[in-house]
Amino acid sequence: MTDTILALNVGSSSLKFALFSTDSGEWPELLLRGAIEELATAPRLKMQAADGTLLQEVVWKDSGDIDAVLPSLLDLISAKREREKLVAVGHRVVHGGRDLSAPQLVTTDLLTALDDLVPLAPLHEAQNIAPIRTLIRLRPELAQVACFDTAFHRTMPDVAARIALPRDYEAAGIRRYGFHGLSYEYVSRRLREIAPHLSKGRVIAAHLGNGASLCALQDGRSIDTTMGFSALDGLMMGTRPGALDPGVLLHLLQQRGMSVAQVEDLLYRRSGLLGVSGNIASDMRVLIASSEPSAREAIDLFIYRCAGQIGALASALNGLDGFVFTAGIGEHSPIIRKAICDRLQWLGVEIDEDANSNNAPVISTEASTVEVRIVPTNEEAMIAHHTLSRVSGLRTPDA
Ligand SMILES: Nc1ncnc2c1ncn2[C@@H]1O[C@H](COP(=O)(O)OP(=O)(O)O)[C@@H](O)[C@H]1O
Ligand SMILES: CC(=O)OP(=O)(O)O
Ligand SMILES: [Mg+2]
């Protein structure tokens, strides 16, 4: 009987899952994968075999939470892989705070530490922890490993991590952590395999999904990133504004009399593409298809802000050798990639329009001084890798 590992990646708009065999060495082999979209409103699951063949589709009648869908998910997976035995589950946990800088086996103490981090990531942390507790109840024999989005950014120098507040705030943990680290760790490792000439150089990776950020990679390690203390900072996102003048917060609280809960809701759930488009959508596909001027304005702002922050990270890297697009928008939207790249001509970026329209691995021209690539991310593979390393007592090799 083959042992398997389940990787769970709960994002702000979906639950992605993937099942891996533990038999194949350092990198577990993919057996099946899938996603549950619209978790909060109308959950629908799609499960595919490793070769992409559709295995199953399920639509739940009621809106649910992860707790409600997880038992069905486990049943559906074991029905498809009857001959394998699930031995461990790895979880993406968005915030590891100041102390959790590497994947950890789940213990009661760890869960208590994670509970304390919930206010730092209101859109994610509680959703990340919920399936861990449900699984302790449903399947107490399973080993569980928490893999942190913040961990990969531990290599950021102090000058990039520091916030310009009085020193005692930093001592209390108010510093820039960065997120999407599992995605950037995967992209960095993948670059080492497919573009070793780039992986040693100065690269910006753009994780453009529902949440969005940039990471400046030097020699494969994070030296700066656009998200900071929380997953609110940096780029404009599906429902978050990105970098915001803190004076706006004071104004909302003092002059408009908004409560803290209202401001939190505004910043995490009602801003970004959704807010600027006038509630048309947070989904880039819907905005691109819309003829409403407000949809166009939301897209234009997303591109403008993204290009500006690429400039800032290019300065942190003292130049640019490579640029990588990844995640939902980055991997699938030629229109957005082109619009961003058109604003990077001053950096020597030149796009090959055919390659870009075809989502080719390299989308820059020969003449471009920056090699622009699409690298599909695989946070689940990274989670499975760390989980296998933890449960088999191996140390994870450094990225
Ligand atoms: N073909 C496409 N064109 C434009 N945007 C796309 C396309 N496919 C996916 N997306 C965008 O990708 C986003 C989801 O990205 P993803 O990385 O899966 O997000 P998350 O992990 O945060 O749930 C969607 O909100 C959608 O806007
Ligand atoms: C950290 C973060 O924003 O994650 P996601 O893109 O999954 O929302
Ligand atoms: Mg994601």
From TrEMBL:
Metal-binding among keywords: yes
Gene it is expressed from: ackA
EC number(s) stated in the UniProt entry for this protein: 2.7.2.1
Localization per record: Cytoplasm
PANTHER family in the record: ACETATE KINASE (PTHR21060:SF21)
Enzyme class: transferase
Family membership: Belongs to the acetokinase family.
Taxonomic classification: Bacteria, Pseudomonadati, Pseudomonadota, Alphaproteobacteria, Hyphomicrobiales
Catalytic residues of the enzyme: D149
Protein name in the entry: Acetate kinase
Record function comment: Catalyzes the formation of acetyl phosphate from acetate and ATP. Can also catalyze the reverse reaction.
Binding residue positions for substrate: R92
Site feature location: Transition state stabilizer: H180, R240
Subunit and interaction comment: Homodimer.
